[in-house]
Amino acid sequence: MVDRCICSDILFSDVKSIGEERGYTGIEEFQEAEICAVHCELCRPYLEKMLETGQTRFSPGEAG
Ligand code: FES
Question: How far does the centroid of ligand 1 lie from the alpha carbon of residue 37, in Å?
Fold first, then answer.
């Protein structure tokens, strides 16, 4: 199950809530705020899919 940014130790569901509160629409906004996807970026394709679909839990290899 892929459900978090491991490097920043944050669940995608929490990333999603923060994005909704702040009105973020792109991954760059999360990166600039240093919430997630600022290190290895392995989470990035999953976060992009989350932004598209609202999904927060994925099978390994499902995105990207
Ligand atoms: S898992 Fe998100 S930056 Fe590494």
Answer: 5
| pTM of the predicted model as reported, rounded to 2 decimal places | 0.94
pLDDT score at 3: 98
40 found inside a domain: yes
Residues of the chain with pLDDT under 70: none
Q: Is 33 in the pocket of ligand 1 (CB under 6 A)?
A: no
Q: What is the maximum span of the chain, computed from C-alpha positions, in angstroms?
A: 29
Domain with 48 in it: 4-53
- What 3-state class would DSSP assign to 58? strand
Number of structural domains the chain divides into: 1
Closest CA to 36 of 57, 49, 19: 19
Verify whether ligand 1 is closer than 6 Å to residue 43 (CB atom). Answer: yes
